[in-house]
Amino acid sequence: MKRALVTGGGGFIGSHLVKYLKARGYWVRGVDLKYPEWGKSAADEFVRLDLRRADHMARAYGTLGFDEVYALAADMGGMGFISSHHAQILHNNTLINFHTLDAAYGYGVGRYLYTSSACVYPEYRQLDTDIPGLKESDAWPAQPQDAYGLEKLVTEELCRHYRRDYGLPTRIARLHNVYGPLGTYDGGREKAPAAFCRKVATAKRDGRTSIELWGDGQQTRSFCYVDDCVEGLYKLMQSDYAEPLNIGSDRLISMNDLARLVMEIAGVDLDIVHTEGPQGVRGRLSDNTLIKQVLGWEPKTALENGLAITYQWIEQQVLG
Fold first, then answer.
1. I need a surface site. Which of 63, 68, 117, 257 has the fewest CB within 10 A?
2. How far apart are CA 199 and CA 212, in angstroms?
3. Angle at 157 between CA 138 and CA 20, to 5 degrees
4. Alpha-carbon gap, residue 146 to 138, rounded angstroms
């Protein structure tokens, strides 16, 4: 039986990953600052720890020994959060990631996977809505978006050097806009799909005729369903590929069209009121050429299908 440590195991992707690993026969320890929000963790052991602290990190690893470490812990959220909490994000995530990686080397783990982000890609490559897919090599010369993207890129480099200098087997996944059920949908840290689902469900419940959307709604993104994300993480961990790899969909959609898709799923027709607010880059799309070559795989869940599951779950929460 393999042993896996999942940091951020109480979060959205981490909770799904713990279930995925358990289904494959792993013994799993989940570690996070908080328990999963939407139910009991599937982990064999779940420990609440503050991974910004080196002494807590030592407790996270303990004396068991781990074949695999999935490093997902991060202070993060949607555009509203990461565009207004630069110091907090850079400080907290740098401590978390440096402690986690250094402890993995010190405790001699088998393999280490770091979850990076598409936010590492330069803003100068994302100025248009009809953007070509971002290739992994496009990250340099660097000009990452916000402190969140900068911290992710720095930790990618640290993973590379721990592998080259110390022989620690590291893997790096660049996640592109992951969505799905059992995630944050309100409170300011939610991402666009969850926010639109909440807004539409709330408008439907209250009999309102419109929802608000930041910017002109022409900004574009691609979105990856959480089940595809965790499968991609697992496949990357089992592979021998050590360089950064995109895990995301290669289907581009505007925020206006995403909101309309949620309305179609909900069976309502609402007006979109465009308001001022953080929008991030103008366009972002995953190039999946390399992941298909390296893993013989790419995310497969259609946006309509994944969004329908997500909307149904969020509507249930909105209705209580």
1. 63
2. 8
3. 85
4. 17
Whether the CB-CB separation of 127 and 282 falls below 8 Å is answered with yes
The 3-state DSSP class for residue 228 equals helix
CA 175 to chain CA centroid, Å, is 5
Other Cβ atoms less than 10 A from the Cβ of 203: the count is 20
Instruction: Check 61, 114, 121, 148 and give the catalytic one.
Output: 148
95 has a pLDDT exceeding 90: yes
Copy the structure tokens of residue 223. 């979105």
CB burial of residue 210 (10 Å; 0-12, 13-18, 19+): exposed
Place of tokens 């026969």: 25
Q: Which domains does the chain have, with CATH numbers?
A: 3-178+223-247 (3.40.50.720), 182-221+251-284+302-318 (3.90.25.10)
Tokens of 281: 């880059």
Q: Which helix (H) or strand (E) holds 272?
A: strand 271-275
Q: Give the model confidence (pLDDT) of 96-122 as tens digits.
A: 999 999 999 999 999 999 999 999 999
pLDDT band at 310 (very low <50, low <70, confident <90, very high): very high
**Gap between the Cα atoms of 119 and 280, Å rounded:** 9
Q: Are 83 and 280 spatial neighbours (Cβ–Cβ below 8 Å)? A: yes
Residue among 221, 227, 220 at smallest CA distance from 299: 227
Q: Residue 8 pLDDT > 90, yes or no?
A: yes
Based on the residue annotation, tell me whether 148 is a catalytic residue of this protein: yes
**Average pLDDT, stretch 217-223?**
98
> Using one digit for the tens of pLDDT, what is the confidence trace for 192-218?
999 999 999 999 999 999 999 999 999
